[in-house]
Amino acid sequence: MVGASLLALSNRLLTKEYSTDAELLAACRRRDLAAMEQLYLAHGGRLRSIAFHILRNRQDAEDTVQETFLKVYRGIEGFQGHSEIGTWLCRIAINTAYDLARKRRRVEQPERPATGIFDLPRHDDRLPLKVALDDALARINPRHRMVFLLFEVEGLRHSEIAAILEIPEGTSKAWLFEAKNELKQLLMEVRR
Q1: 47: CATH
Q2: Of 90, 119, 148, which residue is a domain's last?
Q3: Are 24 and 39 within 8 A, CB to CB?
Q4: Which of 16, 66, 89, 106 is deepest in the core (most CB within 10 A)?
Q5: Considering the chain, what percentage of its residues have pLDDT values greater than 70?
Q6: Domain check: are 91 and 43 in the same one?
Q7: Which residues fall within 8 angstroms of residue 96, CB to CB, at 6 or more apart?
Q8: pTM for this prediction
Q9: If we measure between CA atoms, which residue out of 157, 187, 155 comes closest to residue 172?
């Protein structure tokens, strides 16, 4: 009992929590694995969710997050700090997910023309509204879909989305408006 308590206490003392992004970033640049772990714990869930919305496959999303953090570990010195670290991580994860989607399409379906990353087999056990929403999301403009997912699903602000997608903030707002209009039209067609 005492040994376990001492071990837990020593683990807490050895694991430093970085209170600011600047401290965390400096520790990551020193290749501090505890700092990289804190970075992963702070941002991994959101990155996995974003990757899943792009790839529609949990294993591919996990692979994307792992590849993202490998890229971060290798290239942390190149991060200038002009944006928040979470914004930078999202940009890397989105690019990595799109790269993986293109690679998967080339490898798995060379004989069939690519029609999109949302081509999913139909499952009868899914709720009709979820099926309709998934179908509608798959059919809207990919740029609009990404803004919609980042805003509505991930809860990001337009300023963050603009930084991640490297677009003006007004464009982010316009694309969200367009996404909602497209979804509304497509879902109304389903109701008829």
Answers
A1: 1.10.1740.10
A2: 119
A3: yes
A4: 89
A5: 81
A6: yes
A7: 51, 64, 67, 68, 71
A8: 0.71
A9: 157
